[in-house]
Amino acid sequence: MAKSKSVQSVKGMHDILPEGQSYWKFVYKKGSNLVDDYGFNKIDTPIVESSQLFLRSVGEETDIVSKEMYNFKTRGGDEISLRPENTAGVARAYIEHGMSSWPHPVKLWYWGPMFRHDQPQAGRYRQFYQFGTEIFGDDNPAADAESIFVALGFLGSLGFKNLTLKINSIGDQNCRPHYLKVLKEFLKSKAKQLCAQCKVRAKENPLRVLDCKEESCRALFKEAPQLIDHLDENCRNHFKKVIEFLDEIKAPYMLDPFLVRGLDYYTHTVFEIILEENAKTAELEEGKAATDVAGLKGLALVAGGRYNGLVSLLGGPKTPAVGWATGIERIILAMKNLGLKVPETKSQPKIFLAQLGDFAKRKSLVLFEELRKAGINASTSLGRDSIKAQLRIANRLKVKFSVIIGHKEAIDKTAILREMDSGIQEIIPMEGIIEAVKKRLKS
RNA sequence: GUGCCUAUAGCUUAAUGGUAAAGCACCGCUCUGUGGUAGCGGCGAAAAGGGUUCGAUCCCCUUUAGGCACCCCA
Length: 443
Description:
2 domains; RNA-binding
């Protein structure tokens, strides 16, 4: 097989082919227009950052950094990494360019590839695109709500319905340690009944134990102390106000006391937007029953939260911030599975130029250029000499008209304009051809 | 990182322990001057490596890739 003898794409990496581009274009357009309307400005940061950045921000102990990051050493010996997410990079840029002196809040958005070395699955790649926003310098719960609202608006603009917003507060440096103590005690008392995995986690990352999907554990955790009951007054107030804002803008939400996130920098609000568990595909053909959306059950389309400690952690001034991100491959897969359609954006030529003989070929090349200058999307197949083959291409391209220049026409300084549907042809003087084409295309 | 399933041409599929077949697609010819339909022809495949066997695409092992479920996550 030719495939195996030639070079293949690296595991977990994928090509976005022309027919897939209409989805990408559509999602990008909807997303960028929306955040523009909300006053966000685009920022691009490098795909490569110093490894330190992620170790310090995302967290050395997190899976993303400890297991999934692409790390390299440069010739000079610098340790660098492919970015596994972009909040750290944007925060770094915020500090590096002195954005703290910009009028606040500083509202930024980004779109670009991220890299994580995990197991590829549907909607899950080692290089994948994320789109997201960050708001710096706004401590107000309204900024949390705005972030959530923008994320919901984005998904809504793509046609998603039946979304569930899960939200929780994980407190901050002041109150989380107290909670962890209480939680650890609880887990100790139940140690014997925990699943193997939870036993390990109870020691290493107790917060994540609450995430366990094991039925027996879940039952156990019903009595577990909840973060939300251990928030200090400041945190509780903040969370309460976020919820009030969500009520105000009528965003449907679900409090999830077990929602924790895999990045260390989060404080206060954390949230996820998932497709409802019972999301079904559109009924495609008659007789074909709707099926569960493959691979997407409970998968987060959007995730985000507040990270008030991040900027100062990276050496910048103490700056509250909040943001979210979404995975584009995942979004597009969900759109396809749900039958959400996007407009076709393939290049659609309006007319086709066919020629016979070298002299005519030269003439049609000139005309081709003139058509382009006149803003008419024309196509041609100058490499083919048989008129039959050329018209076959014209037919396949679904053009309305073909312009045919044979040897005779080239000498007479005329061209044949053929309407493809009817097959009606007329001979038009060369200098009038552009006008004639324009006129026909209009009607 | 773990477990299960899968791998035949660009795509979809077939048969077979003994020369790998077809449809679609692509290219050409019939037809250097007219497409859609037709006829004819061409291109082109066993993921890689090893083992069992007289002989392996088929049976076995390893690797690779994909899917699914974990883990984790967007």
